Amino acid sequence: MKKCFVLLLAVFCLLFSNNVSFAEGEAQPARPQEVDAMYDKTATEGLVMRYPGPASMSDQEISVIKANGTVRRSAILDTAFSMLEEGNPFLERYNIITGAEIQPLLNYGIPYFYGGRKMNYVLSNAPGYIPWVEWQDSQVYYRKDVKYFFGLDCRGFIEYVWKEAGIEKYTIAKEEKRDALDRRIVSAAAPGRQEWARYASLLETGDVISLLHPGLHLLFFIGYPGDYGYTEADFPDDPSVLEYPLVIHCGVNAVYADWFYRLKLGHAGYKTMSVPDGGVSVSLLGYADKINTIHQQKQDTSWILLPDESWLTVIPWEGIESWNVYR
């Protein structure tokens, strides 16, 4: 009997003692609407979308990717790409070009959870997902008696990647912090394509970008589409896509809501859980010429379609007040 009590106590601690903390200065997402009302039909019904699953490429496609891709393997990219969904085109191309064999930690990727900083808890039910019940300290965003897919926020994602890559943790949430100023290599108060071009040559893959729009958001710079073997033939309507920087981050992405809605329908253990409004994604920074936009959970997701029908989400310069780069 005593052993049973100790076991129950341990389970209780696992489920409820993982304290979640807010990021300093991070913008709080909009409060989600009731799941049942929103997801009788998926928000992207009728749109072209690739769901997570094994990727399929011809020998010719693989040959072209190898011939054109220039991305170099690193501990940061190994860890960051492992948090994407199964079949993600950037993960697949990274493996092809570098010879890495990185596999996703969870098939549908790591979901976004505002305040999430505990990766050990995210993976505690792997290969499945773990629920988080109402967060008493944040009733503005988390609702009573609702279960959520536990994940990471942007800062939790950055810190986990740093840890796994053996990089010393430092604070960048507050600009006046000495350790942040010591590691800052670029500071741009007037963001835009011209300003980016001015500093682009200074950046290295794995640098951290902080965007203020108006809340703080943190991302890793991972190069350009051409580094991953994309060519003008992949973007016939607008080859200028190749000139824009790529980032990987944990933030808003409407496709996650649809992926997890589909997951809920096929898994009895997830049916009562609220779907996430984002997760770990690769995005194109600054592009705004020929984008699609969908409004979901009171937030917009902009994207362009990749050749394999994956969505490459876009973060336009519009609305970004300033940006900094740290190494």
What does this protein structure show overall?
The chain has helices at residues 2-16, 35-38, 59-68, 75-81, 89-98, 119-122, 154-165, 178-183, 193-199, 254-265; strands at residues 131-132, 147-149, 184-188, 208-212, 216-223, 246-252, 273-274, 278-286, 292-296, 299-305, 311-316, 322-326. With 327 residues, it is α+β, with helices and mostly antiparallel strands. The protein has one domain (47-169, 177-326). The protein has a 9-stranded mixed beta sheet, with helices on both faces. The protein has a 3-stranded mixed beta sheet with strand order 1-2-7, with no helix packed on it. The longest helix has 15 residues, at 2-16. Mean pLDDT is 82; it is low at 1-41.
Layout of helices and strands:
Layout lengths: L1 H15 L18 H4 L20 H10 L6 H7 L7 H10 L20 H4 L8 E2 L14 E3 L4 H12 L12 H6 E5 L4 H7 L8 E5 L3 E8 L22 E7 L1 H12 L7 E2 L3 E9 L5 E5 L2 E7 L5 E6 L5 E5 L1
Parallel strand pairs: 2-7, 8-11
Antiparallel strand pairs: 1-2, 3-12, 4-5, 4-12, 5-6, 6-8, 9-10, 10-11
Helix pairs in contact: 4-7
